[in-house]
Queue: 2 jobs
Job 1
Amino acid sequence: MAGMDLRPLIQPGGKIVLFVWDGLGGITSGPNGETELQAARTPNADRLAREGVCGRLVPVYPGVTPGSGPGHLGLFGYDPIEYQIGRGALEAAGVGFDLQHGDVAARLNFCTLDAHGRISDRRAGRIPTEESKPVVEKLAREVREVDGVKVFWAPVKEYRALLVLRGEGLGDGVEDTDPQKTGVAPLAPKASDDSAASARTARIAAKVLQKAHACLAGQPKANGVLARGFAMRPHWPTVTERFGVKAAVVAGTPMYRGVAKLVGMEELPACNEVAKDVASVAAAWDKYDYFFLHYKHTDKAGEDGDFKAKVHYIEEADAAIPAIEKLGPDVLIVTADHSTPSAMKAHSWHPVPVLLWAKTVRHDRAERFDEISCITGGLGLMPSEHLMPLALAHAGRLAKFGA
Amino acid sequence: MAGMDLRPLIQPGGKIVLFVWDGLGGITSGPNGETELQAARTPNADRLAREGVCGRLVPVYPGVTPGSGPGHLGLFGYDPIEYQIGRGALEAAGVGFDLQHGDVAARLNFCTLDAHGRISDRRAGRIPTEESKPVVEKLAREVREVDGVKVFWAPVKEYRALLVLRGEGLGDGVEDTDPQKTGVAPLAPKASDDSAASARTARIAAKVLQKAHACLAGQPKANGVLARGFAMRPHWPTVTERFGVKAAVVAGTPMYRGVAKLVGMEELPACNEVAKDVASVAAAWDKYDYFFLHYKHTDKAGEDGDFKAKVHYIEEADAAIPAIEKLGPDVLIVTADHSTPSAMKAHSWHPVPVLLWAKTVRHDRAERFDEISCITGGLGLMPSEHLMPLALAHAGRLAKFGA
């Protein structure tokens, strides 16, 4: 089933809350052959499952494990295969850098260069954040502008950082400078397309990296940088343009805020404490039609391989449901961007459970909110991308198609 | 959900065995209202179903009954609507003729011509293979080359045979010579497109058929030939190119070997005795990532309308499972290319049951391997084409998509 342009059907309607329990899905790996969600006590989600309709979402494509960006884009109604974010732009989102249209962002690795300028370590001894942060701050002080283009540097984590160029006429057709091996010098940034903008950006990036190397000359480990994934902020239609909703994001982690802002959601205060984050939704309740509320800890516990912790955090998220219900949403959805089974200590391709509560649902036989019960759910097994039109429909926001 | 290019995600991983029980699916037609698979005792497949994840595959499109070619292409991850094989090329695959790129193949019917050269029987009295084979051999001896183009003739079955032209600059835009009625002469081969290659091929085919008619002049029944479905070997990307697996086929019947070879699988010894065919997989275990093991007898019994025989052969295939498990595959799949209900004595459009066993599955409530239990399976109802990415994922062969 290909995508559908819903714009001609948009009409005013009720309020929608999308409550994402990051990495929620698991595999049957618990002490009694259950998933984390089956092991958890989730009286509120179970009640919503009984009163609502359930199903399972395929985030990107069968068998494909999504990163956080594609996983969320699907939930927002954007086909993640069609809407791909360049690495640099995603990194900017990840650290909360407010990338403007026209900016060019790149991911940086600090590296170690020998006396001949050849790379001896592509990750600068994997220096910890405490060591790399002062180095980034030094770059930010000393390399601030080249040929009228503003230069921004931001720390990411350990040996990784972000570079952003801001100025007129930039392009992102620029090749990586990381040769992907040691014993050779970093590559010069080279234009990868024929545009004047990319050629200019490659020239400026070369000067920026030259200045950076001069600035880092005295550093013991991080005396060089390698740039990858040059990318601009994509020109995407917003959720308001595509779906007619004024939308807000409440997410304590910069990456999720960043992705939501790429599709036009406005940022509300958030801190990764679920009660406070729900209060942030409540405080702005009258101003928006659609709230994306993100809960991070479930994914973290999955990545850590900690079954018990994941169960605990699922229960914590469940306990936040009544406070959301109290706001009176017309549609309340609980689901995930992808699975993160603690047995795999990583994201996975397994479908994610979804429940949609609304007064207009047709019930099904799913009596509990978990991966296995949801197989019998009325929503079936569908691409994440189909969730947004269903949310709009249950909120009365889509008019009849055809007479 | 349109197709997805998985190549950027390919990484090394575990071994996959695809065990195809040809024509496995049935309809509820047994003495107790059961399918052949429900009636069969399949302790091994049932155990794999409990330990794995189940579902159902739609081979081509809902309601569409697949031939053997499309049915298998779907299982190999090729959308059978996009990847269509010309009739001549499929016939070449079916008789194990090793069609080269540049060859043009056509299906032949022997026919009976009257004294005026008009067709009196389009199938030459449906002569049996014993009668047609010597006629084909006579053609192969006497019509071997025309204008520098090599000519090959191969028997197929009864009144059917295969013609292959091999030479420089051939094309397959050539119309059938079968007028589809009696009382008229065979049509002359005519180019169906504007290419020089097709025009040349039509001219050569005309000469070849003229020589064939001269050669067959004395035959009592098969004194003429009609050519249909001129086609070249398609230029398709291989499973190695698309999915990163080195793949082998073990199939005792030429057709299935032929289709597998069109997508780049290498041929291993096979004889349609399942224990020996499994041994053939075992002997090459270290050399390949992906094994397609074909079991024919289930389809044959279905085509014969023999419910009991189909049950028997399902049980025979099931008994071969432990020997495959002993090899230690990371992913073991049991499924079919299409349904062949014995009650219908023919292929059908009904979805086929599938089980996927791997250590990384999420279980479901399917406790038995049969068409009805599989409705509750975690894989849901999906196009056959989605099976390959899921097999790759469960074998750890697909990296994360996006960050």
Job 2
Amino acid sequence: MNLFEKHKETIETAIKALHERTFFAHYPEHPKAYAEDADTKGREAYVARLGKNFDLLLQSGETWLGDEESPYTQEALGIKYPASDEETLIAHAKKGADAWRKASPEVRVGILLESLDRFQSRFFENAYATMHTTGQGYMMAFQASGPHAADRALEALVAGYEELKRFPAEATWVKPMGKYEIKLKKSWRAVPKGIALIIGCSTFPTWNSLPGLYASLITGNPALVKPHPGAILPIALVVAEIQQVLQENGFDPHICQLAVDSYSSPNTKKLAEHRDVKIIDYTGNSAFGNYLETLHGKSVFTEKTGVNSILIDSTDDVDSMIQNISFSLLLYSGQMCTAPQNYYIPEGGIETKDGHISYGDLIAKLIEAINGLALNPKVGPFVLGAIQNLDTAKRLSDSAKLSGSRVLLESQAIENPMFKNARTATPLLLEVDATQHDLFSQELFGPIAFIIKVKDIHQGLAIATDLGKKYGAMSCGAYTTNQETKEKIMDEMALAGTPVSFNLAGGIYINQTASFSDFHGTGGNPSANASFTNPEYIVKRFTWVGFREPA
Amino acid sequence: MNLFEKHKETIETAIKALHERTFFAHYPEHPKAYAEDADTKGREAYVARLGKNFDLLLQSGETWLGDEESPYTQEALGIKYPASDEETLIAHAKKGADAWRKASPEVRVGILLESLDRFQSRFFENAYATMHTTGQGYMMAFQASGPHAADRALEALVAGYEELKRFPAEATWVKPMGKYEIKLKKSWRAVPKGIALIIGCSTFPTWNSLPGLYASLITGNPALVKPHPGAILPIALVVAEIQQVLQENGFDPHICQLAVDSYSSPNTKKLAEHRDVKIIDYTGNSAFGNYLETLHGKSVFTEKTGVNSILIDSTDDVDSMIQNISFSLLLYSGQMCTAPQNYYIPEGGIETKDGHISYGDLIAKLIEAINGLALNPKVGPFVLGAIQNLDTAKRLSDSAKLSGSRVLLESQAIENPMFKNARTATPLLLEVDATQHDLFSQELFGPIAFIIKVKDIHQGLAIATDLGKKYGAMSCGAYTTNQETKEKIMDEMALAGTPVSFNLAGGIYINQTASFSDFHGTGGNPSANASFTNPEYIVKRFTWVGFREPA
């Protein structure tokens, strides 16, 4: 059975899910769904790689590079990956390019889906690799970097497959001309744009990179995966699986290459500016993302920085709300592009089912909830994880001294029961006035939040949408029991290109977006010009070219 | 009956056609399909507008502008259009914008389809308006500017409608969590990007502008139509119909405004750079198109210049081939972005069903065919039409003296039986060697062609694809009876983003692309970053924004 036949049902089900946008997940997200010894074996596999050359890739290199360091042990992983200069990588990518673009969508989708299934067998190894590069807690490292990333990849993959099949490969065109007719045989080819470059980030090495990688590959482009020097291993595991399946099926494994660099000798600009690189996927800071967007004649997909807001107007259940927004702030120490930063709270307090709650009481509840989670040794260490890098740690200590703001809650290190050297930090809570835009209009990546005292939610909404349009926003959480206010928020946030989660409570948070249902990013504000996975995310990676002749 | 119900069948049929890509035309293309007196009435309506203020628009202006001049009479039309500065136009566009974006796709598609049907009643008036602004011959002015343009608009319109309906407006998302479930109500909105600017050209004022206009309007954006100062009337007629239908249905007519300027005081850059203009459609020269493409944060769709080629290898019917490629060169005096310019002919001649034909004999046949058409008083004037502007006339006379080339056939003026002052020119044919890239690598817009002597078709193909990748190409015509050569041409032209017409004979020419079947432009080379109408042409005009809340 060929790989397309093997995965046909999954492909069909996934395409259906793409259009229904109800719950769909192909890869089970809970560790308990896997074999009992999978965790142990995964950890062992991870440990066995430490201090060695990474030997799973079917590509060679002129040197071996690797700068990864665990935020939990603050020690180098010592893993080295094969590295080549940009001209060698490009030359190798071209070797297999013709065969790959000429392969049918069925062949490509079969191979790529097979690679995701193979990656599944490494979800536990990947969880440890992700923990010790990103600093994510174990559960997030398992879920976000494993099944959730694979499902987002699957989403992009089948969206690409669907788009390639959207128009017929050929058709007969008959134009009536009165007494005669003109009859043409026509055909169309989906032509890949060229070499794709996927530039990874240090916090979500697979989740943020797999959609672009699979979208470019399914549409026939060879791919260069340029991981962040601080988080290589997780995506190296995926690239290895792709290369393996490519080779088994008679394709050159260099169709998908790892393109590692180091902090001291970065290769990203050289690759991005190379004339043969036609597609770029990027997650990272806005300055570099904006530069990439100016590169002429390339399809550039960016996810940059933004300032996310929580808008509070009224609620039926104040404690659930407080619990929910506190957890959102804690999750992975705020090192998520969807984490809330700006909490707009009415100075006169809010109405709840149980009566009025003053501004002061709300703040007190919030601080109590944050402490209750962060300082609980059974919760804090696992939800906060560790701080990925020293820049974030420095940003946090600098922010505590931010002139003009008032510290409501200081950040502190907590003990991680498993890793005594873990770089940890509980959230810093700063209070500012609504007029102090300069303090809270930029993203302060990490566990830093502003309580912004506003007249009412309408003032908060006006500021938040203004900042979103100017500086970007990936998410918004809003609490209101008023239908009119809700509609106003939806309308104005829509114009700011910002998705809104209303009245979230319980085990669902604004930080999370679900594949096959939530678009991640909208492309409608400066935080991202791309969206996982809307049609634009696919169609800019290839062009339709037609041919015709008399039939 | 509302307008959606009225046009529902057309919408459904057209969407089906978009995916089948067999022949589909909604608007009859032949004048004889219309009422007997339609032509007379159309000409009278056109004549009645000369020397007057254009009074069909539902917008006012601070001044009246109009620089149009007929290439047939070389006299000013004297029609003036209401004009406003860019801030006034933008402010007016915003007035109706909220109502338009909040209208359902059904309401918008109904209104826009109705406007196209109303435009149909002006096809004859529009034919004369097009003749006397562009210089097109009557039949082309009727077809290309009327039914063909309306069908391309319909294509973009229903492609937009389909894309807006591609995802559900709402869905319930239920995630099983073992003993409980998380249930969210989700909804999505297609949010328009902002004000759209459509920048027209002087040769195809409706055909090249209507797709972008209708694509932007259906996706909820208000539109500013900036015609070329030399060709306003045809598209002013369309804008007038759109405004009328908008007003009849309770919308502000300023959702679609004419934004005229003059040669002495152009407004295009001011409009294009305006912060509220988020979408730009453009047809014209590459220098300005490339500048527009660099404007950050805007969706820019361009059709610029390119160099189209005819590749000759072998043929079953040499006379049909010669007749076909000669006609392609004559049609509207080569003033088409799809007109062939570079004819690659093997120095050793070619094989035909009737034996070998030498290079010299092929050239002789081509010259004979061109003269036979151009100098035939019953054919030449009507196929050639007139030269739109003095720049093209000057380019033609300059090219006759092009250093390094040899003149095979001189251009000459011919008499037009109806317009003694018509600015006419038969094709100029220049012979160059394959090495003289600098002579033929740029578009020389107008009736100018190069005969490029090549070793064989493979050398021609190599040069043509190289030039296509560097400078762009909108079309290619190839003649070969060899299957292997054909596949090679398809593959290499695909990589150069250039559609190929093989072995065309009879009444179909490489210059023509059919709506609902041929993509016009591919976006795959520098001649155009846009394609009528692939999905990319639609999806970059709006973003998907999602909302969710506990169900």
